Amino acid sequence: MPKKNRIHPSFNQMTFAALPADERVRLLNRHTLSGDYAVGEDIYCLHCDRSFKAETVKVDERMSWEFGDYYFECPNDCNGSPLDWSSRPWWRGDEPEADL
Q1: Tens of pLDDT along 20-68?
Q2: Burial class (CB within 10 angstroms; exposed 0-12, middle 13-18, buried 19+) of 89
Q3: Do residues 23 and 37 lie in contact, with contact meaning Cβ atoms separated by under 8 Å?
Q4: pLDDT band per the 50, 70, 90 thresholds, residue 11
Q5: Alpha carbon distance 17, 62 (integer Å)
Q6: How far apart are CA 51 and CA 17, in angstroms?
Q7: Which residues, at least 6 apart from 63, have a Cβ–Cβ distance to it below 8 Å?
Q8: Is 50 exposed, middle or buried, given 0-12, 13-18 or 19+ CB atoms closer than 10 A?
Q9: Which range of residues forms the domain containing residue 77?
Q10: Is there a domain that residue 8 lies in?
Q11: Shortest CA distance to 25 belongs to which of 43, 10, 1, 7?
């Protein structure tokens, strides 16, 4: 029996899962460092400098059964990942300074 190819699939081969909004956000929170997104919340992507709703994140369904983990991608088709995301666009420099 041939061994499974453990190489990450290229972006154009990904199959994104059709999941309910709450499940998509639950998975995102479980597999990201911040883990505090909510349905309807804006997420800002440093990669494309655009925002999207937490429940619209793309989830690669093949990664879950091939590698035991999930792959998340920005829904704006920029290939941004959770490392590129924030709950506020701090990199723009147009926000008022926070009081410390």
Answers
A1: 889 889 988 988 877 789 999 999 999 999 999 999 998 886 655 455 5
A2: middle
A3: no
A4: very low
A5: 8
A6: 21
A7: 9, 69, 70, 71
A8: middle
A9: 16-89
A10: no
A11: 43
HEC sequence for 5-36: CCCCCCHHHCCECCCCHHHHHHHHHHCCCCCC
pTM above 0.90, yes or no: no
Flag whether 20 is in a domain.
yes
Q: Within 10 A of 100 (CB to CB), how many other CB atoms are there?
A: 3
Encoding tokens for residue 82? 């959770």
Residue 64 · residue 58 · CB < 8 Å: no
Q: How many domains is the chain built from? A: 1
Are the beta carbons of 58 and 12 closer than 8 angstroms? no
- Residue at 10 is within a domain: no
At residue 88, what is the residue type? R
Tell which residue, 25, 28, 41, 33, has the closest CA to residue 70. Answer: 28
